[in-house]
Design brief:
single chain, alpha/beta, five-stranded parallel beta sheet, binds flavin-adenine dinucleotide
Length: about 450
């Protein structure tokens, strides 16, 4: 094992940040203004991914380069920040070092844990192996390739439609699942037609494709008002999305899903937007974890009983005004990153830390072209339709890290909006091409429960 314990110059504190997402990057940026610190940011990728737009990569609206940004370039103007691409696997609290999969050790004066989330399959049989989660750039590119591959396969061999080649099942009707379902609806109803023309559209079998959105709750977008939920459901149905509410996915097979009401849907594309838990690092730290496997933090974002250790963003359970945990949102991550930096600087100067107060700017979801819902500010002023759609574009472009990224995303959106065609429907990942169309042994009706013919 390579041992590289880095020691500090006198009076300069070393801050190690694990995770270069919204929380980690904002923390590093704010800390870098102080001459008394040097920062090492460790991330298993050399880029920051912009998760809110992953579904647009998955549906070919945006290219991966529109939503992922090199961390060194992002932090280039900050001379006391060093970025290392490496995966952290454990922490030694006694020696104040973090250890990486590549064998390095980094000594810290302060440690910031901001490693984000991963998919939570809640133990659903087969979900881990057979579904497509949507939590990273890699996931989005893999899903985009699968979607393109099933269309190409069905075009070559239309008999595959009977095996559910063009059935898409989305699990979870929160913002991610709803946005994904709406984008799929737009893609099937308009973008693809525009791209390939009427004849090819028919030959590809797109008019026989089906989208199912499945959720155990009563309505889509559970965090929104009943009015927004009704609007969102209507917009999804107009886009051909079949809603299966108050229904859970019981099993995901190689070529089907089984729902809690016994329905069996043939499909080779199950998209998992069913829930989150803390990144796997959380279970290796020897720290007690709370709801969602996240690290419970105190009001000042420190981890109880651990000197100089902070946890932020999706990796932490941060309490809101009502005492309940704040949701996993980019704005929570961003604000907690800045607050943590401020508290570390207060620690260094021996002053008391501040408590974190979340400034709630509201919530929004895009349902598709010209359709969105937004609840703005703490008092949840409601917007719907084209105005919420425009607000969504503006807010998400503003969150992108560079001016170039903002301009590029806007150009792609404008291209898609006025031309209705997607920019990035290229099938360039050959690994995703082979699909096992026979990986679905027909189950006896008793095992699968009620058999519903959902094949077009
Ligand atoms: C599909 C999707 C859509 C979303 N849409 C919205 C939205 O519309 N609005 C909104 O506000 N929020 C949205 N969110 C939530 C938002 O993206 C997250 O709350 C936010 O990214 C959390 O930031 P973070 O810095 O805590 O974690 P992340 O942004 O996930 O960053 C964590 C970083 O840690 C790195 N990492 C993980 N483990 C290790 C390790 N062991 N070693 C080194 N590095 C590691 C990862 O590579 C990653 O770069 C969405 C999330 C998803 C998945």
């Amino acid at each position: 094992m390579i041992l590289s314990i880095e020691q500090n110059a006198k009076n300069v504190k070393h801050i190690v940040i694990v995770g270069g997402g919204f929380a980690g990057v904002n923390c590093a940026r704010k800390l870098s203004g102080s001459a008394n610190v040097r920062i090492t940011l460790l991330d298993k990728n050399n880029y920051q991914q912009f998760q809110p737009l992953l579904y647009q990569v998955a549906t070919g609206v945006l290219a991966p380069s529109n939503i992922a940004f090199n961390l060194r370039s992002t932090l280039a103007g900050h001379s006391n920040v060093d970025v290392k691409m490496t995966e952290v696997v454990s922490i030694d609290l006694a020696t104040r070092t973090v250890e990486t999969a590549q064998g390095q050790q980094y000594y810290y004066d302060f440690l910031v844990l901001a490693a984000g989330s991963q998919a939570n399959f809640f133990g659903t049989p087969g979900a881990d192996q057979n579904s497509y989660p949507l939590y990273s750039l890699h996931d989005a590119e893999r899903l985009r390739s699968r979607v393109l591959a099933v269309f190409e396969s069905a075009d070559r061999d239309p008999s595959l439609l009977a095996k559910g080649a063009l059935n898409f099942v989305i699990v979870g009707a929160g913002p991610t699942g709803t946005e994904m379902a709406g984008a799929f609806g737009d893609m099937l109803q308009s973008s693809l037609k525009k791209e390939v023309g009427d004849r090819e559209y028919k030959e590809l079998g797109v008019d026989r494709a089906q989208i199912f959105l499945v959720d155990g709750g009563k309505a889509v977008l559970s965090a929104f008002s009943p009015k927004a939920q009704t609007y969102a459901a209507k917009m999804l149905e107009e886009r051909g999305v079949q809603l299966r509410m108050e229904t859970r996915v019981k099993e995901v097979g190689g070529g089907h899903v089984v729902l809690s009401d016994g329905t069996r849907i043939s499909t080779h594309t199950v998209i998992w937007a069913g829930g989150l838990k803390a990144a796997s690092l959380a279970s290796n730290l020897g720290i007690n974890t709370g709801h969602g496997g996240r690290i419970d933090v105190q009001a000042d974002l420190t981890v109880p009983g651990m000197t100089g250790v902070y946890a932020l963003g999706d990796f932490a359970n941060i309490r809101g005004k009502d005492g309940g945990p704040l949701p996993q949102l980019a704005s929570v991550a961003e604000q907690s990153g800045k607050c943590c930096a401020k508290n570390i600087l207060l620690d260094i100067t021996g002053k008391p830390r501040d408590s974190f107060h979340y400034l709630d700017k509201g919530i929004m979801a895009m349902i598709g072209r010209n359709s969105g819902v937004a609840e703005v500010g703490e008092h949840r002023h409601e917007l719907q339709g084209a105005i919420a759609f425009a607000a969504w574009l503006g807010v998400h472009a503003a969150l992108l890290s560079s001016t170039r990224a903002k301009i590029e995303a806007f150009m792609e959106w404008a291209w898609g909006y006025f031309g209705a065609a997607r920019g990035d429907a290229i099938l360039d990942r050959t690994k995703e091409l082979p699909i096992d169309w026979n990986d679905d042994p027909e189950e006896p009706a008793s095992a699968a429960g009620r058999q519903t013919n959902t094949t077009p």
